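User: Predict the full complex structure for these chains.
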Amino acid sequence: MNRGTAAWLFLAPALLVLGVFFLLPVFAGLGLSLTDYDLYALADFHNLRFVGLANYWDLLHRPLFWAALGHTLYFVIVGVPLSMLCSLGTALLLNASAARFKPFFRTALFAPVVTTVVAVAVIWRYLFNTQFGVVNFVLTHLGISPIDWLGDPHWAMPMIILFAVWKNFGYNMIILLAGLQAIPADLYEAACIDGASAWQQFRQITLPALTPILLMVGILTVSGYFQLFAEPYVITEGGPLQSTVSVLYLMYDQGFKWWNMGTASAVAFLLFLVMFVATALMWRFGEGRESVA
Amino acid sequence: MTQRPPARIAVLLAGVAALLLAGCSASSQHVTTLEFWTVGPEGEAFAQLLPEFEQANPDIDVRVQRIPLTAAHEKLLTAYAGDSLPDVVQIGNTWIAEFAALHALVPLQPRVAPSKVIHADDYFASAWATNVIDGTLYGIPWYIDTRLLFYRADLLRDAGFDTPPRNRAEWRAQMDAIRATSHGTRWGALLPTNEYDQLLALALQQHVPLLRDGDRYGNFGSAAFKRTLAFYADLFKRGDLPDWTNVQVGNPWQAFGRGEFVFYLSGPWNIGEFRKRLPASQQGEWSTAQLPGPNGPGDSVAYGSSLVILRHSKHQDAAWTLIEYLSRPDVQVRFYELLGDLPARRSAWESPALKGDPKLRAFRAQLEHMRPAPQVPEWEQIVNMMQQVAARAVAGELTVDEAAAQMDTQADAILAKRRWVLARQHAAIP
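Assistant: Here is the predicted structure of the two-chain assembly.
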């Protein structure tokens, strides 16, 4: 047996699993998106029609699809930087030499990540209730008139973003904290002796050292945030006035609620395309930055 | 996701155990195992009646599986796709058309005709009609659900009215008066803008079908529907109704108890909720009234749960025995006592438990005045769309005419496949 065959034999189990549980469903989904598979086709296979790219064409002409894409981009563009800033900020605080009770704060800040979305979302619904919510109670005491968080189409998405950031920043915080702890302390000592200020140390040592990790965390967060679903599903049910319907929410409605599997698969592939382009751009941008540094 | 492997092992073990047990018991006696899926709290209540049923039918062993309402539709469709449906299912009557289109249900007329228990004329007519798709009976109504007005009699008196409204004009006038006499501190009614039942009930009062040409196209552009939509949107515009979704309300029962609104357009389960949640001092102050129509007391929507037998079931005789048992008037009364489910049979309403209850009187009257929603598989999608567009009209983004036109455009798109399937069936018949 030559080395090539042996290598393939070792790879075979993994490739088989990947093929059966990943590639096959992906190609089946792609095939499905070219048909009008729906309830009627489920009842009688003769009702299945090959429609080519019609599902994609129809979607690109549906205002709801563009609205859903807009809501998702809004969520990603505001949510990801906010989430990264929170993660980086808390990681820096936890890493600071002056910080006390580190294990406690680390656990407390990480806790939202391990809570159940549904249970926490229900609590947030009460916190943000327009009449009795704690949030509006505090705002009123600060002299700000109460905000209709759940009922005003302009405020529902900001609330979802706040929720998602609070729920998720702890995860990236732990990764960034590990990155911070890996930066050799003598670099800072040397900078101190040279008279670098805290800001200069952050700009010249911390950020460059963290760049690869920030890039990885950023890409993971972007791809995660594009898949917004559970938060609006539980908190706002896509409302008010469909202002929190995300692309994935639209896919769920089409696929699992109305059983329009053809349309739902087309939505999935369009979302994949958008995410692919977004993360590829980030990657290119990040690589350019790294080579300069 | 992580629960899958253990679940599979459990199924496997259960399968092995079942094989072993079957090997032991097959020779001794024939016990039919009947799979029965319930949606909502009925499964729990049925568990209390199960011993009685199994005592009377020792050869039937009923396995009940309870599905939460929010997951029921998905679960049933997935089970159909995976060919793992049970023998009997409790199914919402608006879903029957869908499962009939899937050829998943057994026609029941041949079984009803000789039955000593189930008599079609004892059932409320529109409840029965919701189970007939294109002339074929697919389900037996189990309990009934409709929508009407709950109201605070004390607050209505404060506004100067001793009786609830009988038509839409009176209803609107009363709500205007409530707004005025309370100086805007109290709303007329609560009709959450993300629930379609209320607008649907009002639209069905007009006796003009919501779909046209054999349910091939939307008929929301009809003058009658536009009148209803205009009435509905105007109630919000003149300040009688708050434009709240049920997400914003949070707890409608407490809000009703605090008197934030006087009328609440909702269903029979709220009788139990209000009895449980409002203090004893308020129990005499709330009541129910038939839904006001365009000219006098109006119709409402005929909802409810039905019992169906699945086509692939190998125990259809046993399944029918179970359905007959659950349809007995005395058993229906027991379900009312356990859960507050409204019986689908007129004879069950003769029982003192139901007849003597003043809060139920309006329901008894409303049950004779109900109309089914259109019976097409796409209805759930269409009615959700209808409400989403209506909510935009309420918010002032669309005029009534624009909203009606948009509902028709979207309904026509949703029904496109149905038109194609019908045209093909038509062509196939020479």
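Residues 1-28 of chain B have pLDDT under 50 and may be disordered.
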